[in-house]
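Contributing new complexes? Match this layout with manganese (II) ion.
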Amino acid sequence: MKFRRGSIYEAFFISDIHYLLNKKIKSHKHKELFQLLDHLGKKEIKFNNVYLVGDIIENWFFSADRRLQRVKGKKRFNKLFDRLDKLASGAGKKYYIVGNHDTTSYLMRLSPKVENYLRERDWVICEKAENELLIAIHGHQGQYNKFTWMGSILVLRLLHVFASILPALFKFSENFYHKHLNRQDPSTTEETLHYYQRLSRLTHQGHKVLISGHTHDFLCIPKINIINTGDWVKSNSFVIQENKKFSGIRMVARKEFKREFVLKL
Ligand SMILES: [Mn+2]
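Output block (do not edit by hand):
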């Protein structure tokens, strides 16, 4: 598929960028992400509403707050958000939906500096965005409750301390994190269905489309109006809304896009 110059769509959904990942972790598609954003920018493609569906910033491996205080760190934030801001037509809103990796706070709040940064750029910070057609939520709510969240954050904070005392422990922390905090994603069809049913219940989905990210699985389950936006770690995917039609699109190469699913309400 191709984007026609100057098109205005109803909404853009993207999640799980995990931006600012530590240099030690290189398995991400951020170069490709910037290719996408630059392409949309050059073609003057606009969206009335922009939804960042969580885990946009990677905050679990280090403090994004501390990064933002440094000039270089601020520049990296600007590099992403200048482009995301440009996608908005101005007719709607820009939503920053908080994902589990965006925060290391027990209350799932963004750090104050990141919050201020986003507010200055008119992002609406929320756990869930909802209108008459859709609900957008990151999705970790289907895996964590208040207590397991607090437990995970406690462990995570301890790992941060270990890694900062002795950098060699970073590897250990990373492995521990992958094994115990990051590998709770549903893998079988049954688990996947169960996970989305739980998410549907938690959000009181009703007849709306439920759009989430989190599991990094780019998918659409039409029967229960479920969409997952995928990620920019492996999938290179995003979702576009035109009226009552939702399209899942994958960037297969630079300037090359493939519509992988369509959900019509
Ligand atoms: Mn997540």
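Reviewers usually confirm one structural detail per submission. For this one: The pocket of manganese (II) ion is lined by residues 54-55, 99-101, 138, 140, 214 (CB under 6 Å).
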